[in-house]
Amino acid sequence: MTETNVYTRNKETGETQGLPLVSIITPSFNQSAYIAATIESVLSQDYPNIEYIIVDGGSTDGSAEIIERYADKLAWWVSEKDEGHTDALNKGFARANGQILAWLNSDDTYEPGAIREAVAFLMENPEIGLVYGDCNFIDENGYEFGKFNAAQTDLKKLRRGYVHIPQQASFWRAEWWKKVAPLDESFYFAMDYDLWVRLAQIGEFRYLPGKNWANFRLHSDAKSIADDDRCWPDMMRVHYRDGGSFFSIINAKHIIRKIIAPWWNWRRRRKIERSLKNA
Fold it and tell me: Where on the phi/psi map is residue 14: left (φ > 0), alpha (ψ -120 to 50), or beta?
């Protein structure tokens, strides 16, 4: 592989039999152990109008070679050095033509029927700009060991730190995205929280309990485990940027989270270890 490899495939945009085009972006970097499962979970969806874009950051572990095996089924993919996770996402969304957007990280997966169900809801509810369902926690072998604490939220709750939106199980309208894009590349961890806050300023979100749409893979190298301490500082940046006070619910949660962080991460790692032992 050369330093920069770009592969494109012509794909009709717009609508197929009245169904909106859905653009899925997967940012990837050195995730060869999981990237094939991620790709398969997108390509096996029973929704007929998907534009799948993969942005690899110049992986050196064989990820690019795995992605290349699927090149004829991708709308576009690239393997080249980038400025990180958020930069890769922006690069992918800049290529997206869909009326509905989502991203799926290269170690996560969709459940069967997820895209079809999300699109059906958005088509039936034009006033809703973002819809999300439930999400499992899975270990490195793909075994479920818990659930994301998804719940209905809105701008007021988001600004208090009650996020409850699993990014892996979220789908939103491109017309909303265009009003707030791109993602802020200064955020390492909470670029999704920043996006939810900005989208919630436009209109309504909807949580669909019982709709199991995705799997969030937690493993020792996952950002959510290895760099968890960078999440809440990013969220506080959003809070203060939007005029938030030090004397606020979200800051109280931030302080508590800093105190319990060692226990919290130990507990997560123990759950992963038990899942692997019971596999």
Answer: left
pLDDT digits (tens, 9 = 90+) for 200-238: 999 999 999 999 999 999 866 655 544 456 676 877 787
CB 153 within 8 A of CB 208: no
Listed residue (74, 95, 96) closest to 22, CA to CA: 96
Domains and CATH numbers, the chain: 1-107 (3.90.550.10), 111-279 (3.90.550.10)
Q: How many residues does the chain have?
A: 279
Residue 155 and residue 31: Cα distance in Å, rounded? 34
Residues 229, 261 contacting (CB under 8 angstroms)? yes
β-bridge mates for residue 7, sequence order: 77
CA–CA gap between residue 130 and residue 121 (Å, rounded): 10
Look-up of token digits 């592969």: 7
pTM beyond 0.85: the answer is no
Distance, C-alpha 47 to centroid of its chain: 19
Q: Under DSSP, is residue 153 helix (H, G, I), strand (E, B) or coil?
A: coil
Q: How far apart are CA 131 and CA 227, in angstroms?
A: 27
